[in-house]
């Protein structure tokens, strides 16, 4: 099995899809989003298809496609289904695989389990995406501590959006994680922007 990386964020609207696109391009990887909540016509897989140009890209179908843009457990309930952890089967890709989660680590996927349980079941290392806003240091460190507590390997951190030098310095000092990439706040994301950052990314 080729290398698998899970892209996890400190919350929602953090930039996981942009970072996933960058990794997919940089690693010439396949892409999989296990749960897609809402935006079924132009969801995250759609944007990966638009932004990532490599000839062997496979976008694997989501295990659960939920009609409402809500927390997965709520969206699933509204759709009359239950998300079961044993239904997630990691695609047998011959290429590296980038997996993008829906929301933050502790977002519920059913009545008992959260995204972090899904990460453990998929048994792959994580890249943590952080974005600067009031409270983001706390959210980043809590996410780091939860991953550590569960024994999940963290490859490093990506900072996305407006730069916050003092906050980023503290996070890196506290976690001792390598900084894998800094993605600036871009007015428009397209394949050329993704290519630009993909050339900067190295594990």
TrEMBL record:
Keyword annotations of the record: ATP-binding, Biotin biosynthesis, Cytoplasm, Ligase, Magnesium, Metal-binding, Nucleotide-binding
One GO term of the biological process aspect: biotin biosynthetic process
Named cofactor requirement(s): Mg(2+)
Gene3D superfamilies in UniProt: P-loop containing nucleotide triphosphate hydrolases
List of residues binding ATP: 13-18, 44, 100-103, 184
Binding site for substrate: 37
Main location group: cytoplasm
Subcellular localization: Cytoplasm
CC per GO annotation: cytosol
InterPro entries: DTB_synth_BioD (IPR004472), P-loop_NTPase (IPR027417)
PANTHER family assigned: DETHIOBIOTIN SYNTHETASE (PTHR43210:SF5)
Name of the featured protein: ATP-dependent dethiobiotin synthetase BioD
Species, as recorded: Aquirufa nivalisilvae
């Amino acid at each position: 099995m080729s290398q698998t990386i899970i892209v996890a964020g400190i919350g929602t609207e953090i930039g996981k899809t942009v970072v996933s696109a960058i990794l997919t391009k940089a690693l010439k990887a396949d892409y999989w989003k296990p749960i897609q909540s809402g935006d079924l016509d132009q969801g995250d897989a759609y944007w990966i298809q638009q932004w990532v140009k490599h000839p062997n890209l496979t976008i694997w179908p989501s295990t659960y496609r939920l009609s409402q843009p809500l927390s997965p457990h709520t969206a699933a309930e509204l759709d009359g289904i239950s998300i079961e952890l044993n239904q997630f089967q990691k695609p047998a890709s011959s290429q590296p695989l980038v997996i993008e989660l829906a929301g933050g680590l502790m977002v519920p996927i059913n009545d008992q389990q959260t995204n972090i349980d899904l990460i453990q079941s998929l048994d792959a290392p994580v890249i943590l995406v952080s974005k600067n806003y009031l409270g983001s240091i706390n959210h980043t460190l809590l996410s780091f501590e939860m991953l550590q507590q569960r024994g999940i390997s963290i490859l490093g951190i990506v900072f996305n959006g407006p730069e916050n030098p003092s906050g980023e310095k503290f996070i890196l000092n506290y976690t001792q994680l390598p900084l894998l990439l800094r993605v600036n706040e871009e007015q428009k994301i397209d394949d050329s922007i993704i290519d630009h950052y993909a050339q900067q990314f190295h594990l």
